[in-house]
Specification:
about 625 residues; alpha/beta; 7-stranded mixed beta sheet; 6-stranded mixed beta sheet; 21 strands; about 30% helix
Amino acid sequence: MRVLPFVLLLLVSPFLRAEEFGVLVYGATPAGIAASLAAAADGEKVLLVDANSWVGGMMTNGLTHTDFRTFEGLTGAFLEVSTRVEAHYRATFGADSPQVKECFRGTQAESKVNRAVLEKMLAEQPQITVWLGRSLEAVKCSTDGHTRAVEIAVFADPTGGHFPVTAHMFIDATYEGDLMAGAEVPYRIGREAGEQYAESLAPDEADTQLQGYNFRLAMTRVPANRVMPKAPKGYEREEFTGVLPLLESAKITRLFGTGPPALFKAQAPSLPNGKFDINDVSHGPVRLSLPGENDDWPDGGAGRAARIVGTLPPFSRTGLRQSRERVFDEHLLWNVGLLYFLQNDDAVPAKLRDEAREWGWCKDEFVENGHLPEQLYVREARRMAGAYVFTEKDTDPAPGDARSVFQPDAIAMGDYGPNCHGTRHEGSRFGGKHSGEFYKSVAPYQIPYGVLVPPDVENLLVPVAASSSHVGFCALRLEPIWMSLGQASGHAAHQAIVDKVPVQAIAVERLQKRLHGLGAATIYVSDVPPGDPDFVAVQWWGTAGGLHGLAPAPDEAGQRGKNISGQYYEAFPRHGAGLDKVLDPKIAAAWLKLAAKFQLPEAKLPAADGKVTRGDWIRAAWSLQQLP
């Protein structure tokens, strides 16, 4: 994964010296920012590097309608961001303003607001240095014959300058897993066969299909803030006339909406200040996503013939860059060209053309990039083959339980469920259909530490291109979850440095306690949120297994609470700790067995006497756990 052999690259200039940091994070995605903030808060000198022009990944590039199910599932780094976003709108427009209501507790923000908040959070940490516009050029690893370590990463800027960096710990927070691949960590591209991990959503046979990509376009109907789209580079009218029969036959009756038969999904609820996050319409008659056209994005097609391709010969960064530019341009031409055709071509029915012309780019978004996002929405690329492979089974219910399977090494949790916008397209772009598409309702699930950890590189963590199957990744691939994994990575990196151990050998229990103390959940508890005096104790007990078995399975797997709006719901039922409930003797007996594993003295724990509550017992156990 280099343009020149590594040694030659370092000899290009006799003045080339490696800068030294405690933690190097590649990828200023939300996960990368969370990792940087966590490591810096622990005292590490951090370098955050990104090839793009501004920080924030997709949260500052149009994906501002965040994917989660319940507010109770938002904790840690993402919750801090959303809290700050809401405070921004309150301070700017007033507590009772429409903007505060429309930001949906800070989870639905304009890209420019997300960017301002994330930039401010980084600026508040003097331990963090940020390099933008510098892409990874080479990685050098050392080995003792058993394990390997990343020694130096070299970055390049557009002028041809090279910048070598050494660090104690490296974190790959890119959507593509570029640093991981450069370190020759094994990874997967494509879908596993169903039988490999016993996944119901996987295909019968393994293949190299990827979930489709598209742009998340920031648009508005407010005339004062509207910029009308121009024809994209390479636009040819004939490429889009295939939509006309669908429009004339009334199979498409509107162009913008929340679902079929619309062509552009205007995510609901809308964003503050009359803006919309425009996305691909699931199961729609015409899709913005182009599965099959993105196959060369992850590694330039170098690993398409293999299931695990980390051992393939190195490939040219120049070739990879060219492949990604081609994929980027094809998606931009399709997404923007389709809109331009609908707005301007006389053959489009007047009613629909008029509707299309109500919409335009936001004048105050992506100003330095012609009001278009700088990044393509890469839903899936490489996936590390790491210490633990997260699969569909990890989102399944525990036997007879309302909760999903228990993960004692959990360092994060999610509540969205596996979802895929399709991995291939059958037939014409106009009226054909995606295959490989699925959306599964599940109960909130825990995510174990092993998804971050490579098999043999002792100073690298991978929170975004995390270790998972295709189906498992389709549950993890959401910014709130990636931020949780990034936060865990940052604290884990510091812990490994302090303890002088490989990332594979850190004490996960200590990492869990650090996360809990900062309001980051490792298990979903609907009635004890971050900031609650009992949050840390309940998270500790739940992560130990104490909350499994409290409630039986619902009639419907993944049963949700009452719908709030669109994809958002009230808390998952049967997922509360019920701290005010009287402690049942049966539960007390199970808890005593669990307490014995922590060597907690039974005599000092409250008895189930009909007065003691669950909360009383958990608080007492936590106090004993805290004793030296």
